[in-house]
Amino acid sequence: ATHTDGEPPPNCAHFVTLLEDHVHDFRVSQNALEHVSFAVLGFGSTEYEAAGHYCTAAARVDSAFASLAGQRLLPLMRVTDTEDAASQVLPWREELETALR
């Protein structure tokens, strides 16, 4: 989820900062996550899209994993609170289950 002004919520801010620090740290291999598969699901509101804050935290995590050579299972999925969440997540979850088999 995205918090105030596109920032990660407090409960994951440290994780996002640490991950992005690794992307820019010369001591961390740019292939550090090459054996890690990932898929990112972000929650937000399209009402903040014009301000550039729609699922920003999820996009930052997705970008950082990719920058460290993580193996993307699915494209970033953005879920808006302006529509039913279950109807948005279910097809993504089914694709993820297939990708994990």
TrEMBL record:
GO biological process: tRNA processing
SUPFAM superfamilies per record: Flavoproteins (SSF52218)
A GO term for molecular function: FMN binding
Flavodoxin-like domain span: 1-97
InterPro entries: Flavodoxin/NO_synth (IPR008254), Flavoprotein-like_sf (IPR029039), tRNA_wybutosine-synthase (IPR034556)
Pfam families recorded: Flavodoxin_1
Protein name as annotated: Flavodoxin-like domain-containing protein
Protein's organism: Strombidinopsis acuminata
